Structures are given as structure tokens and as C-alpha cells.
Amino acid sequence: MNSTNIFSNQTALITGASRGIGKSIALQLAQTGLEVVVNYSNSQEKAEEVVQTIKGAGGKAYSVQANVSDESEVDRLIKTITSQSGKVDILVNNAGITKDGLLMRMKTEDWQSVIDLNLSGVFLCTRAISRLMLKQKSGRIVNITSVVGLMGNAGQGNYAAAKAGVIGLTKSTAKEFASRGITVNAVAPGFITTDMTKDLDAQNILAAIPLGCFGTPEQVAGAVKFLATDPAAAYITGQVIQVDGGMVMS
Ligand code: NAP
Predict the structure, then answer these.
(1) CATH of the domain at 197
(2) Cys-Cys link to 33, which of 3, 64, 68, 178 (CB 3.0-4.6 A)?
């Protein structure tokens, strides 16, 4: 593995790392020499492929199944990691879903499941891991939000509410944890080519992107890796970095 070993002896948990953006984050962080915990919900084979890719390149990784919107499963996930690795230095809250629909017709269960994973899942993992990080007096937390959380989007009221909530949670936890050496930041991707966006109308969306193309999971992973890097990002906390081709400029 082309490892720079800037993180040797550290462990990172990436939620939803079997596919898409989470997979790229896992692969890029593993290249730095740290141990990666590849969390997934259903895609056991894909998660195992990520683990094998990392190991095949000389890195360290293992997978743990857990639905991170479920408190008892998050507890089991953290127990598994503490018994196997002893600690978590970097948490990337990436797992997310969409259940789109106009608000007037949105089913309560589609509202709830998106809030449960995309917002409450971030809370549950952050609360559980922060207990370890606060004792260590160090840690990096990176939350994956979305430009939709900044600008809203017709047909994504549930998703926009959850992602805006993640931004508020990021800033609040950044303030709570700063005195203990823990930074908390968010990355807000625009439209990135993954399973999540494969059915969207590309032409309409492209017209709204100044750089004129969709982003890649690797480009999002690059921003996450930077925010996790010590000392380069050690003085950055409570920030939202957009990786969106210029889609949202404020
Ligand atoms: P994706 O390709 O659909 O992958 C989603 C990942 O989340 C998978 O690894 C999936 O695991 C995991 N997951 C789903 N439900 C889970 C649960 N209950 N517990 C644990 N893991 C679960 O999505 P993506 O496009 O990479 O998106 C990743 C993150 O970026 C999400 O938070 C998303 O909202 C955000 N984002 C994406 C875009 C975009 O354009 N793609 C833009 C802005 C923000 P399984 O494989 O086991 O199902």
C-alpha cells in the first residue's frame, strides 16, 4: 500500500463504508496507515471487498455490520471495536439514505427513517464514540452532510431537514468537545456519482453546477482525509466544507 503512515496506530470508524463515498473514505484513510473499521448495514460482500482491497494493499481493516440508526446496534458496534482495536481516533459519520417525495404526500415512515439514520444515527455514533475520545483527550469527527442541508430541495424535505440538523449538531459538538482536543467538522457534497444519485436527471442538475460536472467519491474523501489530518487540520473545528463544484456559494 502506498502508505504515508501519518496515522500509524490509529483507528478510524467509517459508517456506511461498503459503497459510494464511504468506501472511498475508507480506502483513502487506509492509505495513511491507520486501521479502518468498515461499517455497513446489508452489503456484507461489498464491505468484505473493501476490507480485502485494503489488506491486499498492505493496510489494516475489518468490517462490522450494524444499523447505525438503532441505539442497541450502535452499542454493539462500539463494543466490537473497543474489544478489537481498543479505541477510535477518527469517526466519519457517513451512512445515509434518501426517501424522496413532495412533502404533501410524504409518508410518515419515509420522513422518520431518513431522520433516524441521517440525523439520529450521527447523534448515536457521536455520543458513543465521544465517551472514548473525551477520555483520550483527542479525536477527529467528520460528518457527511449535503448542500441540500444548506439550500433545501423540493422533494427532499426529510433529507434536507436531517442534513441541516447535522450541520447544527456539528457546530454544537465542536463547541462542546473543543476543550478536550476533539475537532468536529462537516463535509457537504453536492452531486456525487454513487448509487444514491444514479436515477437523477443529470442534465437538469449539471446546469446548476458551475464546474459543469458531477463530483466523485474520491473528491469527497480527499476533504474528509484533510479534516482528519494532524497537524494540518488541527486548528479547524465547527466548519462545513462544500465539495460541490461551486453549486452553492454564499
Ligand atoms: P450510497 O452509495 O447509497 O451508500 C450508502 C452507504 O450507507 C452504504 O454503505 C450503506 O450500506 C450505508 N447504510 C445505509 N443504511 C445504513 C444503516 N442503517 N446503517 C449503516 N450503514 C447504512 O450513498 P453515498 O452517495 O455514498 O452517500 C454517502 C453519504 O453522503 C450519505 O450521508 C449521503 O447523504 C451523503 N451525500 C451524498 C451525495 C451524493 O450525491 N451521492 C451528496 C450529498 C451528500 P449497505 O451497502 O450495507 O446498504
Answers:
(1) 3.40.50.720
(2) 3
Task: Say if 162 falls within a structural domain.
Answer: yes
Neighbours of 87 (CB within 10 A): 17
**What amino acid positions are annotated as catalytic residues?**
159
The answer to whether 149 and 200 have CB atoms below 8 angstroms apart is no
Q: Is 250 among the domain residues?
A: no
Do the Cβ atoms of 22 and 216 come closer than 8 Å? no
Q: Check if the beta carbon of residue 50 is closer than 8 Å to that of residue 38.
A: yes
C-alpha cell of residue 4: 504515508
The residue count of the chain comes to 250
Number of domains in the chain: 1
- Smallest CA-to-CA distance from 197 within 211, 217, 219, 167 is with 217
Span 141-200, pLDDT tens digits: 999 999 999 999 999 999 999 999 999 999 999 999 999 999 999 999 999 999 999 988
**Closest residue CA from atom 33 of ligand 1:** 96
Q: Ligand 1 pocket, 40 CB below 6 A?
A: yes
**Long-range pairs of 53-60 with CB within 8 A, sequence gap ≥ 24:** 53/27, 54/1, 54/26, 54/27, 54/30, 57/1, 57/2, 57/30, 57/31, 58/1, 58/3, 59/1, 59/3, 59/30, 59/31, 59/33, 60/30, 60/34, 60/35, 60/36
- Indicate whether residue 146 lines ligand 1 (CB < 6 A): yes
Supply the range of the domain harboring residue 55. 5-243
For residue 117, pLDDT over 90 is answered with yes
Is 162 within 8 Å of 144 (Cβ atoms)?
no
**249 occurs within a structural domain:** no
The pLDDT assigned to 143 comes to: 99
